[in-house]
């Protein structure tokens, strides 16, 4: 079941599209907070975004740019601002297709199906984990903070993935070591400390301080 995220401030249009797509067995979420669209995007983890251009606070181009900083998820613009300049701008900003309002729901569905086929027939699902403004992209093992990408080693990525998946919970050192080396063979406990220290240095250089907290004698935590 593909997940579709609708960013549309016209409630009538948004709910009409949602109900129609749910009949096609799509899981649909409609944006509620137009100040914090990215938070809802990350929480829902969609495979496709339907995005209006004219929105409260920030326009669709802004949110398209924000999504593209962290994800390659397909974006289909829906807008009555369908002059050539807006269509070209939507594509240049990272959009994948454009549907003019008013539109036929069946035509929209066909566009969505075609876009999903093109996207996911050739690549796996793109997933993101987010905490405190940092985005961990599971598809390319990079961390993004304040629009800057932080390159990670294999172990850096594994550690952050486990901690972010368990955000708000303490992850014991033993569990991290097991996930890192996937072995029952004894690993020097200091090796994990060295790995954590290296990650913290990278995060601090990117102005991401106190991201990983130590619970002495137990493990580590991302709040």
From TrEMBL:
InterPro entries: CheY-like_superfamily (IPR011006), OmpR/PhoB-type_DNA-bd (IPR001867), Sig_transdc_resp-reg_C-effctor (IPR016032), Sig_transdc_resp-reg_receiver (IPR001789), WalR-like (IPR039420), WH-like_DNA-bd_sf (IPR036388). Residues 126-223 bind DNA. Residues 126-223 form the OmpR/PhoB-type domain. Residues 3-116 form the Response regulatory domain. Keywords: DNA-binding, Phosphoprotein, Transcription, Transcription regulation. One of its GO terms (cellular component) is protein-DNA complex. GO terms for biological process: regulation of DNA-templated transcription. It comes from the Bacteria. The modification 4-aspartylphosphate is found at residue 52. GO terms for molecular function: phosphorelay response regulator activity; transcription cis-regulatory region binding. May play the central regulatory role in sporulation. It may be an element of the effector pathway responsible for the activation of sporulation genes in response to nutritional stress. Spo0A may act in concert with spo0H (a sigma factor) to control the expression of some genes that are critical to the sporulation process. This is Stage 0 sporulation protein A homolog.
């Amino acid at each position: 079941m593909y997940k579709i995220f609708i960013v549309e401030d016209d409630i009538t249009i948004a709910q009409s599209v949602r109900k129609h797509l749910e009949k096609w067995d799509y899981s649909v979420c409609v944006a509620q907070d137009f100040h914090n669209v990215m938070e809802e995007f990350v929480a829902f983890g969609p495979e496709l975004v339907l995005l209006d251009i004219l929105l409260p606070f920030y326009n669709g181009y802004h949110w398209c740019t924000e999504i593209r900083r962290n994800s390659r998820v397909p974006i289909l613009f829906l807008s009555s601002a369908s002059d050539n300049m807006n269509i070209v701008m939507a594509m240049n900003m990272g959009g994948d297709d454009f549907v003019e309002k008013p539109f036929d729901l069946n035509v929209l569905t066909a566009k969505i199906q075609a876009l999903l086929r093109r996207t996911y027939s050739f690549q796996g699902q793109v997933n993101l984990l987010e905490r405190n403004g940092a985005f961990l992209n599971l598809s390319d093992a990079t961390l993004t903070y304040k629009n800057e990408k932080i390159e990670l080693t294999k172990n850096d990525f594994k550690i952050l993935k486990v901690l972010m998946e368990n955000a708000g919970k303490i992850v014991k050192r033993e569990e991290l070591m097991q996930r890192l080396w996937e072995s029952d063979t004894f690993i020097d406990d200091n090796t994990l400390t060295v790995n954590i220290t290296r990650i913290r240095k990278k995060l601090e250089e990117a102005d991401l301080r106190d991201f990983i907290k130590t619970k002495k004698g137990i493990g580590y935590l991302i709040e």
